[in-house]
Amino acid sequence: MGHRKAAPLVLKGLQRLEYRGYDSAGMALYQDQVVSLYKTQGKVADLAALANFKDANQSIGMGHTRWATHGVPSDANAHPHSSNSGELTLIHNGIIENYEALKKLLVGKGYVFHSDTDTEVLVNLIEEVQKSHQYQLGKAVQVALSQVVGAYAIVVFDTKKTDELVVAKLGSPLAIGMGDQEYFIASDASPFIEYTNKAVYLEDHQLAIIKRDRAPKILSIATDTFTDYYIQELELSLDAIEKGGYKHFMLKEIYEQPRAIKDTYRGRLLAEDGLIKMAGLEEHLDKFLNAKRIIIVACGTSWHAGLVAEYILEDLVRIPVEVEYASEFKYRNPIISNQDVVIAISQSGETADTLAAIKLAKEKGAFVFGVCNVVGSTISRVSHAGAYTHAGPEIGVASTKAFTSQITVLSLIALRIAKAKESISVAQYKEILNELELIPQKVEIALLANQRILEIAHTYKGNHNCLYLGRGVNFPVALEGALKLKEISYIHAEGYPAAEMKHGPIALIDENMPVIVVAINKGHYEKTVSNIQEIKSRKGKIIAIVTEGDTTVQELADHVIEVPETLECLSPLLTTIPLQLLSYHIAVLLNKNVDQPRNLAKSVTVE
Ligand code: AGP
Protein backbone atom coordinates (compact mmCIF):
# COMPACT_ATOMS: atom_id res chain seq x y z
CA MET A 1 0.00 0.00 0.00
CA GLY A 2 1.64 3.22 -1.11
CA HIS A 3 2.19 5.58 -3.99
CA ARG A 4 3.74 3.16 -6.45
CA LYS A 5 2.02 0.82 -8.93
CA ALA A 6 1.27 -2.28 -6.84
CA ALA A 7 1.25 -4.97 -9.58
CA PRO A 8 4.97 -5.01 -10.56
CA LEU A 9 5.94 -4.65 -6.93
CA VAL A 10 3.74 -7.54 -5.78
CA LEU A 11 4.93 -9.79 -8.64
CA LYS A 12 8.59 -9.07 -7.89
CA GLY A 13 7.97 -9.62 -4.19
CA LEU A 14 6.33 -12.97 -4.90
CA GLN A 15 9.31 -14.03 -7.00
CA ARG A 16 11.54 -13.24 -4.02
CA LEU A 17 9.31 -15.29 -1.72
CA GLU A 18 8.65 -18.12 -4.15
CA TYR A 19 11.27 -20.29 -2.45
CA ARG A 20 8.88 -20.51 0.52
CA GLY A 21 6.13 -22.30 -1.40
CA TYR A 22 5.42 -22.47 -5.08
CA ASP A 23 2.59 -24.71 -6.27
CA SER A 24 0.20 -21.86 -7.12
CA ALA A 25 0.09 -18.07 -6.99
CA GLY A 26 -2.37 -15.21 -6.98
CA MET A 27 -2.74 -11.45 -6.70
CA ALA A 28 -5.51 -8.94 -5.99
CA LEU A 29 -5.32 -5.28 -7.00
CA TYR A 30 -7.62 -2.57 -5.60
CA GLN A 31 -8.82 0.66 -7.12
CA ASP A 32 -11.56 2.37 -5.09
CA GLN A 33 -14.09 -0.44 -4.58
CA VAL A 34 -13.04 -2.55 -7.55
CA VAL A 35 -11.13 -5.78 -6.81
CA SER A 36 -9.15 -7.31 -9.69
CA LEU A 37 -8.31 -10.92 -8.80
CA TYR A 38 -5.77 -13.13 -10.61
CA LYS A 39 -5.04 -16.71 -9.53
CA THR A 40 -3.32 -19.68 -11.14
CA GLN A 41 -1.85 -23.07 -10.38
CA GLY A 42 1.90 -23.02 -11.06
CA LYS A 43 4.67 -20.47 -10.67
CA VAL A 44 4.69 -16.69 -10.19
CA ALA A 45 5.79 -16.50 -13.83
CA ASP A 46 2.46 -18.13 -14.78
CA LEU A 47 0.63 -15.50 -12.70
CA ALA A 48 2.60 -12.69 -14.36
CA ALA A 49 1.51 -14.07 -17.74
CA LEU A 50 -2.20 -13.93 -16.84
CA ALA A 51 -2.62 -10.27 -17.79
CA ASN A 52 -0.74 -7.23 -19.01
CA PHE A 53 0.04 -5.79 -15.59
CA LYS A 54 2.08 -2.94 -17.09
CA ASP A 55 -1.05 -0.83 -17.35
CA ALA A 56 -2.35 -1.76 -13.90
CA ASN A 57 -2.32 1.53 -11.97
CA GLN A 58 -3.69 0.32 -8.68
CA SER A 59 -1.49 1.33 -5.72
CA ILE A 60 -2.83 -1.25 -3.30
CA GLY A 61 -2.31 -4.94 -3.93
CA MET A 62 -1.65 -8.27 -2.26
CA GLY A 63 -0.13 -11.49 -3.55
CA HIS A 64 0.55 -15.02 -2.38
CA THR A 65 2.56 -18.07 -3.35
CA ARG A 66 1.10 -21.29 -2.01
CA TRP A 67 2.35 -24.54 -0.51
CA ALA A 68 -0.77 -26.69 -0.44
CA THR A 69 -2.03 -27.93 2.93
CA HIS A 70 -5.82 -28.05 2.52
CA GLY A 71 -6.91 -28.61 -1.10
CA VAL A 72 -4.76 -29.65 -4.06
CA PRO A 73 -2.74 -27.09 -6.05
CA SER A 74 -5.36 -25.54 -8.38
CA ASP A 75 -6.62 -22.15 -9.64
CA ALA A 76 -9.60 -22.29 -7.27
CA ASN A 77 -7.49 -23.13 -4.23
CA ALA A 78 -4.89 -20.45 -5.00
CA HIS A 79 -5.00 -17.29 -2.88
CA PRO A 80 -6.34 -14.58 -2.48
CA HIS A 81 -9.76 -15.81 -1.41
CA SER A 82 -12.87 -13.61 -1.41
CA SER A 83 -15.83 -13.62 0.94
CA ASN A 84 -19.27 -14.52 -0.42
CA SER A 85 -20.19 -10.82 -0.85
CA GLY A 86 -16.90 -10.18 -2.62
CA GLU A 87 -16.21 -7.26 -0.27
CA LEU A 88 -13.43 -8.97 1.69
CA THR A 89 -10.26 -10.44 0.18
CA LEU A 90 -7.67 -12.36 2.16
CA ILE A 91 -4.30 -14.08 1.82
CA HIS A 92 -3.13 -16.53 4.46
CA ASN A 93 0.01 -18.45 5.39
CA GLY A 94 -0.63 -21.21 7.94
CA ILE A 95 -3.33 -23.76 8.82
CA ILE A 96 -6.78 -23.28 10.38
CA GLU A 97 -7.12 -26.57 12.27
CA ASN A 98 -10.84 -26.18 13.15
CA TYR A 99 -11.86 -25.02 9.67
CA GLU A 100 -14.29 -27.89 9.06
CA ALA A 101 -16.35 -27.03 12.16
CA LEU A 102 -16.34 -23.34 11.21
CA LYS A 103 -17.28 -24.22 7.61
CA LYS A 104 -20.23 -26.31 8.81
CA LEU A 105 -21.41 -23.38 10.90
CA LEU A 106 -21.14 -20.98 7.95
CA VAL A 107 -22.82 -23.37 5.53
CA GLY A 108 -25.65 -23.47 8.05
CA LYS A 109 -25.87 -19.70 7.64
CA GLY A 110 -26.05 -20.00 3.85
CA TYR A 111 -22.40 -19.44 2.90
CA VAL A 112 -21.17 -21.25 -0.21
CA PHE A 113 -17.56 -22.25 -0.87
CA HIS A 114 -15.64 -22.34 -4.18
CA SER A 115 -12.46 -23.99 -2.92
CA ASP A 116 -11.34 -26.74 -0.55
CA THR A 117 -9.23 -24.37 1.50
CA ASP A 118 -9.30 -23.46 5.18
CA THR A 119 -8.49 -19.91 4.09
CA GLU A 120 -11.83 -19.37 2.30
CA VAL A 121 -13.54 -20.41 5.53
CA LEU A 122 -11.60 -17.72 7.42
CA VAL A 123 -12.50 -14.84 5.08
CA ASN A 124 -16.18 -15.78 5.27
CA LEU A 125 -16.00 -16.10 9.05
CA ILE A 126 -14.67 -12.53 9.21
CA GLU A 127 -17.54 -11.43 6.92
CA GLU A 128 -20.08 -13.19 9.11
CA VAL A 129 -18.74 -11.51 12.28
CA GLN A 130 -18.59 -8.13 10.51
CA LYS A 131 -22.15 -8.38 9.21
CA SER A 132 -23.75 -9.80 12.32
CA HIS A 133 -22.16 -7.17 14.62
CA GLN A 134 -21.69 -4.22 12.24
CA TYR A 135 -18.01 -4.21 13.20
CA GLN A 136 -15.20 -2.30 11.51
CA LEU A 137 -12.79 -4.59 9.65
CA GLY A 138 -10.15 -4.56 12.44
CA LYS A 139 -12.65 -5.57 15.09
CA ALA A 140 -14.24 -8.22 12.88
CA VAL A 141 -10.82 -9.79 12.19
CA GLN A 142 -9.99 -9.71 15.92
CA VAL A 143 -13.25 -11.41 16.93
CA ALA A 144 -13.14 -13.95 14.12
CA LEU A 145 -9.56 -14.92 15.02
CA SER A 146 -10.60 -15.57 18.60
CA GLN A 147 -12.69 -18.47 17.20
CA VAL A 148 -9.82 -19.90 15.17
CA VAL A 149 -7.47 -22.74 16.21
CA GLY A 150 -4.22 -22.95 14.24
CA ALA A 151 -1.53 -20.81 12.69
CA TYR A 152 -1.89 -17.77 10.51
CA ALA A 153 -0.31 -14.75 8.95
CA ILE A 154 -3.10 -12.91 7.12
CA VAL A 155 -3.72 -9.75 5.15
CA VAL A 156 -7.34 -8.63 4.68
CA PHE A 157 -8.81 -5.89 2.43
CA ASP A 158 -12.36 -4.57 2.56
CA THR A 159 -13.83 -2.74 -0.41
CA LYS A 160 -15.82 -0.67 2.10
CA LYS A 161 -12.52 0.79 3.46
CA THR A 162 -10.27 1.35 0.48
CA ASP A 163 -7.38 2.97 2.35
CA GLU A 164 -6.82 0.25 4.91
CA LEU A 165 -5.27 -3.20 5.23
CA VAL A 166 -5.63 -5.37 8.33
CA VAL A 167 -2.94 -7.96 9.09
CA ALA A 168 -2.58 -10.47 11.95
CA LYS A 169 -0.17 -13.16 13.10
CA LEU A 170 -0.02 -16.36 15.09
CA GLY A 171 2.78 -18.84 14.44
CA SER A 172 3.52 -17.88 10.82
CA PRO A 173 5.96 -15.02 10.19
CA LEU A 174 4.82 -11.52 9.23
CA ALA A 175 6.98 -8.46 8.66
CA ILE A 176 5.83 -4.90 7.91
CA GLY A 177 8.23 -2.86 5.76
CA MET A 178 8.04 0.76 6.90
CA GLY A 179 8.53 3.03 3.88
CA ASP A 180 7.95 6.73 3.37
CA GLN A 181 4.10 6.89 3.30
CA GLU A 182 4.09 3.35 1.95
CA TYR A 183 3.91 0.00 3.69
CA PHE A 184 4.90 -3.47 2.62
CA ILE A 185 3.67 -6.67 4.28
CA ALA A 186 5.48 -9.96 3.71
CA SER A 187 6.56 -13.28 5.26
CA ASP A 188 10.14 -11.95 5.41
CA ALA A 189 12.00 -8.83 4.34
CA SER A 190 13.29 -10.07 0.98
CA PRO A 191 10.32 -8.64 -1.05
CA PHE A 192 10.71 -5.09 0.31
CA ILE A 193 14.39 -4.76 1.19
CA GLU A 194 15.07 -2.77 -2.01
CA TYR A 195 12.47 -0.16 -0.92
CA THR A 196 13.16 0.06 2.86
CA ASN A 197 15.40 -1.55 5.45
CA LYS A 198 13.06 -0.58 8.30
CA ALA A 199 10.80 -3.40 9.43
CA VAL A 200 8.43 -4.31 12.23
CA TYR A 201 8.05 -8.01 13.01
CA LEU A 202 4.57 -8.75 14.32
CA GLU A 203 4.44 -10.93 17.45
CA ASP A 204 2.04 -13.81 17.97
CA HIS A 205 -1.56 -12.77 18.73
CA GLN A 206 -1.00 -9.30 17.27
CA LEU A 207 -3.09 -7.48 14.69
CA ALA A 208 -2.09 -4.32 12.79
CA ILE A 209 -4.25 -1.77 11.03
CA ILE A 210 -2.30 -0.22 8.18
CA LYS A 211 -3.33 3.01 6.54
CA ARG A 212 -1.45 4.92 3.84
CA ASP A 213 -1.30 8.25 5.65
CA ARG A 214 -0.17 7.25 9.10
CA ALA A 215 1.99 4.83 11.07
CA PRO A 216 0.47 1.37 11.61
CA LYS A 217 -1.42 0.69 14.83
CA ILE A 218 -0.66 -2.65 16.46
CA LEU A 219 -3.24 -4.31 18.69
CA SER A 220 -2.86 -7.24 21.04
CA ILE A 221 -5.76 -9.51 20.01
CA ALA A 222 -6.10 -11.01 23.50
CA THR A 223 -5.96 -7.84 25.60
CA ASP A 224 -7.66 -5.63 22.98
CA THR A 225 -5.09 -2.90 23.68
CA PHE A 226 -2.79 -1.07 21.26
CA THR A 227 0.90 -1.76 21.88
CA ASP A 228 4.13 0.06 21.10
CA TYR A 229 6.43 -1.60 18.61
CA TYR A 230 10.09 -1.66 17.65
CA ILE A 231 11.22 -0.72 14.16
CA GLN A 232 14.27 -2.85 13.25
CA GLU A 233 16.99 -1.60 10.87
CA LEU A 234 17.84 -4.59 8.64
CA GLU A 235 21.39 -5.33 7.44
CA LEU A 236 20.09 -7.48 4.60
CA SER A 237 21.37 -6.27 1.18
CA LEU A 238 19.61 -6.67 -2.15
CA ASP A 239 22.80 -8.23 -3.50
CA ALA A 240 22.61 -10.93 -0.87
CA ILE A 241 19.28 -12.12 -2.26
CA GLU A 242 20.28 -12.08 -5.95
CA LYS A 243 22.10 -14.96 -7.76
CA GLY A 244 25.28 -13.01 -8.26
CA GLY A 245 26.12 -14.65 -11.60
CA TYR A 246 25.62 -18.23 -10.42
CA LYS A 247 23.17 -20.47 -12.35
CA HIS A 248 21.32 -21.35 -9.15
CA PHE A 249 21.01 -19.99 -5.61
CA MET A 250 22.09 -23.44 -4.33
CA LEU A 251 25.45 -23.27 -6.18
CA LYS A 252 25.96 -19.66 -5.02
CA GLU A 253 25.25 -20.70 -1.44
CA ILE A 254 27.63 -23.69 -1.67
CA TYR A 255 30.38 -21.29 -2.81
CA GLU A 256 29.46 -18.77 -0.09
CA GLN A 257 30.38 -21.26 2.67
CA PRO A 258 33.95 -19.99 3.29
CA ARG A 259 32.51 -16.50 3.88
CA ALA A 260 29.47 -17.82 5.79
CA ILE A 261 31.64 -19.84 8.20
CA LYS A 262 34.00 -16.86 8.66
CA ASP A 263 31.09 -14.46 9.27
CA THR A 264 29.63 -16.98 11.72
CA TYR A 265 32.76 -17.03 13.89
CA ARG A 266 33.74 -13.39 13.25
CA GLY A 267 34.01 -11.54 16.59
CA ARG A 268 33.31 -14.81 18.43
CA LEU A 269 36.46 -16.83 17.73
CA LEU A 270 39.54 -14.97 18.99
CA ALA A 271 42.10 -17.71 18.37
CA GLU A 272 45.12 -15.57 19.20
CA ASP A 273 43.70 -14.77 22.62
CA GLY A 274 42.36 -18.33 22.98
CA LEU A 275 38.93 -16.88 23.56
CA ILE A 276 35.39 -17.55 22.45
CA LYS A 277 32.91 -14.69 22.90
CA MET A 278 29.22 -15.37 22.37
CA ALA A 279 27.02 -12.97 24.34
CA GLY A 280 23.91 -15.18 24.29
CA LEU A 281 25.93 -18.10 25.64
CA GLU A 282 28.11 -16.14 28.09
CA GLU A 283 25.07 -14.71 29.90
CA HIS A 284 23.67 -18.21 30.47
CA LEU A 285 26.83 -20.31 30.73
CA ASP A 286 25.74 -21.55 34.16
CA LYS A 287 22.66 -23.14 32.59
CA PHE A 288 24.90 -25.27 30.39
CA LEU A 289 27.46 -25.97 33.13
CA ASN A 290 24.73 -27.21 35.50
CA ALA A 291 22.70 -28.99 32.86
CA LYS A 292 21.95 -32.65 33.52
CA ARG A 293 21.27 -33.14 29.84
CA ILE A 294 21.29 -31.25 26.55
CA ILE A 295 18.38 -31.99 24.22
CA ILE A 296 18.66 -30.83 20.62
CA VAL A 297 15.41 -30.36 18.66
CA ALA A 298 15.30 -29.68 14.92
CA CYS A 299 14.10 -30.91 11.53
CA GLY A 300 15.72 -31.98 8.27
CA THR A 301 19.19 -30.62 7.66
CA SER A 302 19.16 -28.78 10.98
CA TRP A 303 18.53 -32.12 12.69
CA HIS A 304 21.65 -33.49 10.94
CA ALA A 305 23.63 -30.51 12.31
CA GLY A 306 22.25 -31.46 15.73
CA LEU A 307 23.56 -35.01 15.29
CA VAL A 308 27.04 -33.66 14.47
CA ALA A 309 26.77 -31.49 17.61
CA GLU A 310 25.87 -34.53 19.71
CA TYR A 311 29.22 -36.15 18.85
CA ILE A 312 31.17 -32.92 19.48
CA LEU A 313 29.36 -31.95 22.72
CA GLU A 314 29.52 -35.37 24.35
CA ASP A 315 33.18 -35.77 23.37
CA LEU A 316 34.34 -32.32 24.52
CA VAL A 317 31.83 -31.32 27.21
CA ARG A 318 30.93 -34.72 28.72
CA ILE A 319 27.23 -33.88 29.18
CA PRO A 320 24.63 -36.41 27.86
CA VAL A 321 23.08 -35.15 24.61
CA GLU A 322 19.87 -36.36 22.96
CA VAL A 323 18.92 -35.30 19.43
CA GLU A 324 15.19 -35.27 18.74
CA TYR A 325 13.10 -34.89 15.61
CA ALA A 326 11.09 -31.84 16.69
CA SER A 327 7.93 -33.30 15.13
CA GLU A 328 8.20 -36.47 17.26
CA PHE A 329 9.43 -34.72 20.39
CA LYS A 330 6.16 -32.79 20.88
CA TYR A 331 3.94 -35.86 20.74
CA ARG A 332 6.22 -38.38 22.47
CA ASN A 333 5.40 -36.99 25.95
CA PRO A 334 9.15 -36.67 26.68
CA ILE A 335 10.59 -36.38 30.19
CA ILE A 336 11.93 -32.84 30.48
CA SER A 337 12.97 -30.90 33.58
CA ASN A 338 14.33 -27.49 34.53
CA GLN A 339 17.78 -29.11 34.62
CA ASP A 340 17.64 -29.68 30.90
CA VAL A 341 18.97 -27.31 28.27
CA VAL A 342 17.16 -27.52 24.93
CA ILE A 343 19.03 -26.32 21.84
CA ALA A 344 16.61 -25.57 18.99
CA ILE A 345 18.28 -25.40 15.58
CA SER A 346 16.54 -23.83 12.60
CA GLN A 347 17.75 -21.99 9.49
CA SER A 348 14.48 -20.18 8.89
CA GLY A 349 13.54 -19.81 12.54
CA GLU A 350 9.95 -20.45 11.48
CA THR A 351 9.63 -24.24 11.29
CA ALA A 352 6.35 -25.07 13.01
CA ASP A 353 7.46 -28.47 14.35
CA THR A 354 10.51 -26.92 16.01
CA LEU A 355 8.44 -24.07 17.41
CA ALA A 356 6.03 -26.58 18.91
CA ALA A 357 8.92 -28.49 20.51
CA ILE A 358 10.25 -25.24 21.99
CA LYS A 359 6.83 -24.42 23.42
CA LEU A 360 6.64 -27.81 25.11
CA ALA A 361 10.19 -27.55 26.49
CA LYS A 362 9.46 -24.11 27.95
CA GLU A 363 6.19 -25.32 29.51
CA LYS A 364 8.20 -28.08 31.25
CA GLY A 365 10.76 -25.59 32.61
CA ALA A 366 13.72 -26.31 30.33
CA PHE A 367 16.09 -23.50 29.26
CA VAL A 368 15.80 -23.02 25.49
CA PHE A 369 18.78 -21.84 23.44
CA GLY A 370 17.99 -21.06 19.80
CA VAL A 371 20.41 -21.35 16.85
CA CYS A 372 18.85 -19.54 13.88
CA ASN A 373 19.93 -17.93 10.63
CA VAL A 374 17.06 -15.48 10.01
CA VAL A 375 17.33 -12.37 12.17
CA GLY A 376 14.05 -11.51 13.85
CA SER A 377 12.54 -14.93 13.15
CA THR A 378 10.00 -16.40 15.58
CA ILE A 379 12.35 -19.03 17.06
CA SER A 380 14.97 -16.34 17.75
CA ARG A 381 12.29 -14.38 19.62
CA VAL A 382 10.68 -17.20 21.63
CA SER A 383 13.95 -18.82 22.78
CA HIS A 384 15.36 -17.74 26.18
CA ALA A 385 18.66 -16.94 24.52
CA GLY A 386 20.53 -17.93 21.40
CA ALA A 387 23.12 -17.40 18.72
CA TYR A 388 22.64 -16.51 15.08
CA THR A 389 24.46 -18.27 12.31
CA HIS A 390 25.58 -15.48 9.97
CA ALA A 391 25.25 -17.46 6.75
CA GLY A 392 23.26 -14.66 5.06
CA PRO A 393 19.92 -15.33 3.32
CA GLU A 394 19.61 -18.96 2.19
CA ILE A 395 17.19 -19.04 -0.75
CA GLY A 396 17.83 -22.44 -2.31
CA VAL A 397 15.38 -24.86 -0.67
CA ALA A 398 18.14 -27.42 -0.19
CA SER A 399 20.06 -26.14 2.81
CA THR A 400 23.85 -25.94 2.38
CA LYS A 401 25.66 -22.95 3.94
CA ALA A 402 23.21 -22.94 6.88
CA PHE A 403 24.32 -26.52 7.69
CA THR A 404 28.02 -25.65 7.87
CA SER A 405 27.27 -22.41 9.73
CA GLN A 406 25.16 -24.31 12.26
CA ILE A 407 28.03 -26.77 12.84
CA THR A 408 30.39 -23.80 13.28
CA VAL A 409 28.18 -22.19 15.95
CA LEU A 410 27.60 -25.51 17.73
CA SER A 411 31.35 -26.20 17.74
CA LEU A 412 31.98 -22.77 19.30
CA ILE A 413 29.33 -23.50 21.96
CA ALA A 414 30.91 -26.89 22.75
CA LEU A 415 34.40 -25.38 22.97
CA ARG A 416 33.28 -22.53 25.25
CA ILE A 417 31.51 -24.89 27.66
CA ALA A 418 34.41 -27.38 27.58
CA LYS A 419 36.81 -24.57 28.50
CA ALA A 420 34.60 -23.45 31.38
CA LYS A 421 34.20 -27.05 32.56
CA GLU A 422 37.88 -27.83 31.94
CA SER A 423 36.64 -31.04 30.37
CA ILE A 424 39.40 -30.80 27.73
CA SER A 425 43.03 -29.78 28.04
CA VAL A 426 44.09 -26.24 27.21
CA ALA A 427 46.23 -27.71 24.43
CA GLN A 428 43.29 -29.55 22.83
CA TYR A 429 41.11 -26.45 23.23
CA LYS A 430 43.68 -24.26 21.47
CA GLU A 431 44.27 -26.87 18.76
CA ILE A 432 40.56 -26.98 17.84
CA LEU A 433 40.25 -23.19 18.05
CA ASN A 434 43.17 -22.62 15.68
CA GLU A 435 41.97 -25.32 13.30
CA LEU A 436 38.46 -23.87 13.19
CA GLU A 437 39.95 -20.56 12.10
CA LEU A 438 41.57 -22.36 9.14
CA ILE A 439 38.37 -24.07 7.99
CA PRO A 440 37.16 -21.35 5.55
CA GLN A 441 40.33 -21.60 3.45
CA LYS A 442 40.15 -25.41 3.59
CA VAL A 443 36.56 -25.22 2.30
CA GLU A 444 37.90 -23.09 -0.58
CA ILE A 445 40.26 -25.99 -1.39
CA ALA A 446 37.48 -28.59 -1.14
CA LEU A 447 35.45 -26.53 -3.63
CA LEU A 448 38.25 -26.89 -6.19
CA ALA A 449 37.07 -30.48 -6.78
CA ASN A 450 33.91 -29.11 -8.44
CA GLN A 451 34.84 -30.09 -12.01
CA ARG A 452 35.88 -33.59 -10.94
CA ILE A 453 32.59 -34.01 -9.09
CA LEU A 454 30.68 -32.94 -12.21
CA GLU A 455 32.39 -35.77 -14.12
CA ILE A 456 31.36 -38.26 -11.41
CA ALA A 457 27.81 -36.90 -11.56
CA HIS A 458 27.67 -37.69 -15.27
CA THR A 459 28.51 -41.31 -14.43
CA TYR A 460 25.80 -41.78 -11.80
CA LYS A 461 22.96 -39.49 -12.91
CA GLY A 462 21.09 -42.48 -14.30
CA ASN A 463 21.07 -44.49 -11.07
CA HIS A 464 17.81 -44.84 -9.12
CA ASN A 465 19.29 -45.59 -5.72
CA CYS A 466 22.32 -44.54 -3.74
CA LEU A 467 23.81 -45.39 -0.34
CA TYR A 468 25.81 -42.97 1.82
CA LEU A 469 28.07 -44.27 4.59
CA GLY A 470 30.04 -42.56 7.32
CA ARG A 471 31.40 -43.31 10.78
CA GLY A 472 31.36 -41.25 13.96
CA VAL A 473 30.81 -37.55 13.37
CA ASN A 474 30.62 -38.24 9.63
CA PHE A 475 27.59 -40.53 9.95
CA PRO A 476 25.31 -37.44 10.08
CA VAL A 477 27.21 -36.14 7.02
CA ALA A 478 26.20 -39.35 5.20
CA LEU A 479 22.57 -38.71 6.23
CA GLU A 480 22.84 -35.11 5.00
CA GLY A 481 24.39 -36.18 1.68
CA ALA A 482 21.51 -38.61 1.13
CA LEU A 483 18.95 -35.93 2.00
CA LYS A 484 20.48 -33.49 -0.49
CA LEU A 485 20.35 -36.04 -3.32
CA LYS A 486 16.77 -37.03 -2.45
CA GLU A 487 15.36 -33.54 -2.20
CA ILE A 488 16.78 -32.05 -5.41
CA SER A 489 17.27 -35.01 -7.82
CA TYR A 490 14.40 -37.18 -6.55
CA ILE A 491 16.78 -40.23 -6.55
CA HIS A 492 16.14 -42.58 -3.60
CA ALA A 493 19.12 -42.43 -1.23
CA GLU A 494 19.84 -43.59 2.30
CA GLY A 495 22.55 -42.69 4.78
CA TYR A 496 23.87 -45.25 7.24
CA PRO A 497 26.60 -45.68 9.83
CA ALA A 498 29.18 -47.64 7.80
CA ALA A 499 29.24 -50.50 10.31
CA GLU A 500 25.45 -50.81 10.21
CA MET A 501 25.58 -51.84 6.59
CA LYS A 502 26.30 -55.51 7.29
CA HIS A 503 23.12 -55.66 9.38
CA GLY A 504 20.93 -55.35 6.30
CA PRO A 505 21.64 -52.65 3.68
CA ILE A 506 24.56 -54.66 2.28
CA ALA A 507 21.86 -56.82 0.65
CA LEU A 508 21.16 -53.87 -1.68
CA ILE A 509 24.69 -53.78 -3.04
CA ASP A 510 25.48 -54.87 -6.58
CA GLU A 511 27.08 -53.28 -9.65
CA ASN A 512 24.11 -50.88 -9.94
CA MET A 513 24.42 -49.42 -6.46
CA PRO A 514 26.68 -46.38 -6.05
CA VAL A 515 27.93 -46.16 -2.48
CA ILE A 516 29.35 -42.85 -1.26
CA VAL A 517 31.67 -43.38 1.69
CA VAL A 518 33.16 -40.67 3.88
CA ALA A 519 36.59 -42.22 4.52
CA ILE A 520 38.85 -39.51 5.90
CA ASN A 521 42.03 -40.63 7.71
CA LYS A 522 40.67 -39.92 11.19
CA GLY A 523 38.74 -41.88 13.79
CA HIS A 524 37.94 -45.40 12.63
CA TYR A 525 39.69 -45.11 9.25
CA GLU A 526 40.80 -48.74 9.11
CA LYS A 527 37.32 -49.98 9.88
CA THR A 528 35.92 -47.76 7.12
CA VAL A 529 38.50 -49.19 4.70
CA SER A 530 37.30 -52.71 5.49
CA ASN A 531 33.70 -51.57 4.92
CA ILE A 532 34.83 -50.36 1.50
CA GLN A 533 36.37 -53.77 0.82
CA GLU A 534 33.06 -55.45 1.80
CA ILE A 535 31.26 -53.26 -0.76
CA LYS A 536 33.90 -53.85 -3.40
CA SER A 537 33.60 -57.62 -2.99
CA ARG A 538 29.94 -57.25 -3.88
CA LYS A 539 30.69 -55.15 -6.97
CA GLY A 540 29.26 -51.96 -5.46
CA LYS A 541 30.45 -48.71 -7.12
CA ILE A 542 32.45 -46.70 -4.58
CA ILE A 543 32.78 -42.94 -4.48
CA ALA A 544 35.01 -42.13 -1.52
CA ILE A 545 35.58 -38.81 0.22
CA VAL A 546 39.21 -39.08 1.39
CA THR A 547 41.88 -36.95 3.01
CA GLU A 548 44.25 -35.27 0.57
CA GLY A 549 47.08 -37.66 -0.33
CA ASP A 550 45.22 -40.81 0.72
CA THR A 551 46.56 -43.75 -1.30
CA THR A 552 44.87 -46.75 0.39
CA VAL A 553 41.29 -45.97 -0.52
CA GLN A 554 42.52 -44.69 -3.88
CA GLU A 555 43.31 -48.36 -4.69
CA LEU A 556 39.87 -49.64 -3.72
CA ALA A 557 37.38 -46.98 -4.81
CA ASP A 558 36.01 -46.30 -8.29
CA HIS A 559 36.26 -42.56 -7.64
CA VAL A 560 37.91 -40.53 -4.87
CA ILE A 561 37.26 -36.92 -3.99
CA GLU A 562 39.89 -35.34 -1.76
CA VAL A 563 39.31 -32.85 1.04
CA PRO A 564 42.07 -31.13 3.07
CA GLU A 565 43.15 -32.76 6.32
CA THR A 566 41.58 -31.44 9.53
CA LEU A 567 40.60 -32.57 13.02
CA GLU A 568 37.92 -35.27 13.15
CA CYS A 569 35.47 -33.11 15.13
CA LEU A 570 35.63 -30.39 12.44
CA SER A 571 35.77 -32.72 9.44
CA PRO A 572 31.99 -32.51 8.66
CA LEU A 573 32.64 -28.88 7.61
CA LEU A 574 34.77 -30.24 4.74
CA THR A 575 33.36 -33.69 3.96
CA THR A 576 29.88 -32.30 3.36
CA ILE A 577 31.07 -30.01 0.53
CA PRO A 578 31.63 -32.71 -2.15
CA LEU A 579 28.30 -34.30 -1.23
CA GLN A 580 26.50 -30.97 -1.74
CA LEU A 581 28.19 -30.49 -5.13
CA LEU A 582 27.50 -34.08 -6.26
CA SER A 583 23.78 -33.82 -5.55
CA TYR A 584 23.70 -30.37 -7.19
CA HIS A 585 25.33 -31.56 -10.43
CA ILE A 586 23.22 -34.72 -10.66
CA ALA A 587 20.04 -32.65 -10.24
CA VAL A 588 21.16 -30.12 -12.88
CA LEU A 589 22.05 -32.94 -15.30
CA LEU A 590 18.56 -34.36 -14.71
CA ASN A 591 17.04 -30.91 -15.45
CA LYS A 592 15.46 -30.65 -12.02
CA ASN A 593 14.41 -27.32 -10.53
CA VAL A 594 17.36 -27.22 -8.13
CA ASP A 595 16.30 -24.13 -6.17
CA GLN A 596 12.64 -25.06 -5.92
CA PRO A 597 12.35 -28.85 -5.91
CA ARG A 598 8.87 -30.34 -6.18
CA ASN A 599 6.70 -30.72 -3.11
CA LEU A 600 9.13 -28.79 -0.84
CA ALA A 601 9.16 -25.38 0.80
CA LYS A 602 12.09 -23.51 2.32
CA SER A 603 10.31 -22.79 5.54
CA VAL A 604 7.74 -25.36 6.69
CA THR A 605 5.40 -23.21 8.74
CA VAL A 606 2.74 -25.86 9.19
CA GLU A 607 2.89 -28.95 11.44
C1 AGP B 1 16.92 -29.10 3.92
O1 AGP B 1 17.61 -28.96 2.75
C2 AGP B 1 15.49 -28.85 3.81
N1 AGP B 1 15.19 -27.62 3.24
C3 AGP B 1 14.72 -29.10 5.10
O2 AGP B 1 14.97 -30.42 5.51
C4 AGP B 1 15.06 -28.17 6.26
O3 AGP B 1 16.32 -28.44 6.75
C5 AGP B 1 14.03 -28.37 7.37
O4 AGP B 1 12.76 -28.04 6.86
C6 AGP B 1 14.34 -27.51 8.58
O5 AGP B 1 14.27 -26.16 8.26
P1 AGP B 1 14.82 -25.06 9.29
O6 AGP B 1 16.27 -25.30 9.47
O7 AGP B 1 14.52 -23.76 8.61
O8 AGP B 1 14.05 -25.24 10.56
What does this structure look like?
The chain is α/β, with parallel strands linked by helices and 607 residues long. It is built from 20 helices and 26 strands. The longest helix is centred in the C-terminal third of the chain and has 22 residues, at 426-447. It starts with 5 loop residues before the first helix and ends in an 18-residue tail after the last helix. The mean pLDDT is 94. Bound molecules: 2-deoxy-2-amino glucitol-6-phosphate. The site of 2-deoxy-2-amino glucitol-6-phosphate has 15 residues, from helix 10.
- Name the hetero compounds present: 2-deoxy-2-amino glucitol-6-phosphate
Give the helix/strand class. Answer: alpha/beta
Shape: globular
Low-confidence regions:
none
Q: What is the helical fraction, as a range of percent?
A: 25-40%
Arrangement of strands in the largest sheet: 4-5-6-7-11-12-13
How far apart the termini lie comes to 31 Å
Average pLDDT, rounded to a whole number, is 94
With helices defined by DSSP (H or I, 4 residues minimum), what is the helix count?
20
Q: Count the strands?
A: 26
Compute the gyration radius: what is it? 25 Å
Largest sheet composition: 7 strands, antiparallel
As a percent range, the share of strand residues is 15-25%
